[in-house]
Write a structure and sequence with these properties.
CATH architecture: Beta Barrel
Number of helices: 2
Distance between the termini: 48 Å
């Protein structure tokens, strides 16, 4: 069974979203710079066992691989209620300990990510501004278990995820209007580049102190650069829903709406639609349980439609579970998702599974020992792809595969 599913770029968005959030220090750590600003640093030394670094099929994959990971990081925090700023940079130096899976790649590889977050205006301000941006160069190893796509060895990538948002609260805090822009830009060494630019308009009406009726909408442009397989698209999504706190420990989110990938034939935007264009009902249902300040469990379902570099678009049904647990010096994370994707071209489908669990134990306040396990799995109905081509790590099509990763880590952060 083979699939046209090209790299896990959609999952990389999860990695970028968490780039600023992982390994958060306490308020008293770091070096003080002025009245509120603090500069923090960390260093992780890890060893990884990877059964299938290039995500090849069981028949084609090379031997398992061991590697060392050196991960320094530095971040600046300027907290505040009306103004806040965060800037973070992490690097990953990867040293393969046995044969490099692909002969034309160096045994030492360097990746990293830089992220910033700027907020002006408080939750009570009539107008507030937010800018978030993250630039990533793969392969980079990020701590959250769901960030496996950032450890991309087969197709090195430069990727930028950015968002700018203006929040307006006319007449008080009950009604909030968001006007914004979001982008996602990818540059590959061997594959076609792509960029997506979306305008967004969101409305939140807090008819109860902790419950809001929401309207979420996006429309934009998705462009493939130099790609003779995929077409340009103008994706559109509109959803309405409820987000609210049911009790002191339970939070629920319900959304439903319409999505259309709006793929255009022959890259003629607003001309004739491609046969691979897809539209469908979209939505989500999530429930979060917070038994304590340091523990959270979230489970739910989401249906979405998105454009894609190759094969134009897909509709995805996703079941997700994530949990974090903090008990004294012990910190644990669990993530799992099952995703069923139906592609717009030739009625192909693929199912993927992402899963991971991590445990960190703090020996002292700033020193920790950790272990992590991740699994990535893909299966599809596509038997048409050439077997030899799919066994070539430089071929853009990723066939059926299973990948296991085990990581042991010693970390210091301040």
């Amino acid at each position: 069974m083979r699939s046209p599913f090209i790299i896990l770029s959609q999952a990389l968005g999860l990695a970028l979203a968490g780039a600023l959030a992982h390994a958060q220090p306490s308020a008293t750590s770091g070096v003080g710079l002025g009245e509120k600003s603090r500069l923090h640093a960390k260093l992780d030394l890890s060893t990884m066992y990877d059964t299938n670094a290039f995500r090849l099929s069981d028949d084609d994959r090379v031997d398992e691989n061991w590697r060392l990971l050196i991960r320094p990081g530095l971040w600046l925090e300027v907290p505040g209620s009306s103004f806040s700023f965060r800037l973070r940079g992490d690097a990953t130096i990867t040293q393969f300990l046995n044969d490099v899976p692909v002969t034309d790649q160096d045994s030492t590889q360097i990746g990293g990510n830089v992220g910033l977050e700027f907020k002006a205006g408080s939750d009570r301000s009539a107008v507030a501004f937010t800018i978030v941006d993250t630039l990533t160069r793969t392969p980079v190893f990020l701590s959250p278990p769901e960030s496996v796509a950032a450890d991309e060895v087969r197709f090195p990538e430069w990727r930028n995820e950015g968002q700018a948002r203006v929040t307006v609260r006319p007449g008080g805090r009950a009604l909030e209007l968001d006007f914004g822009y979001r982008n996602s830009v990818s540059f590959f060494e061997e594959l076609a580049d792509s960029h997506q630019h979306l305008g967004l308009f969101d409305v939140r009406w807090k008819f109860l102190p902790k419950t809001a009726l929401v309207l979420l909408s996006e429309f934009g442009l998705f462009v493939n650069e130099g790609n003779r397989v995929g077409n340009d698209a103008t994706p559109l999504t509109v959803q309405v829903g409820l987000i609210g706190q049911l009790t002191s420990k339970f939070i629920a989110e319900l959304r439903a709406g319409y999505g259309n990938s709006l793929v255009w034939a022959n890259d003629d935007v607003f001309g004739s639609q491609s046969e691979a264009s897809q539209d469908t009902v979209i939505g989500a249902a999530f429930l979060t349980y917070r038994p304590s300040d340091r523990s959270t469990i979230t489970a739910g379902y989401e249906r979405s439609v998105r454009p894609l570099i190759i094969f134009d678009s897909f509709i995805q049904d996703s079941i997700q579970l994530r949990a974090s647990l903090g008990i004294d010096r012990l910190v644990g994370q669990v993530f799992g998702s099952y995703n069923l994707r139906n592609y717009g071209l030739n009625d192909r489908f693929a199912q993927t599974v992402l899963g991971g669990v991590s445990v960190d134990y703090y020996l002292v306040r700033y020193v920790s020992l950790g272990a992590q396990y991740r699994i990535t799995y893909q299966d599809s109905d596509d038997d048409e792809q050439d077997q030899t081509a799919l066994g070539d790590p430089t071929n853009p099509f990723v066939g059926d595969f299973t990948r296991h990763q085990v990581v042991f880590n010693v970390g210091v952060e301040y």
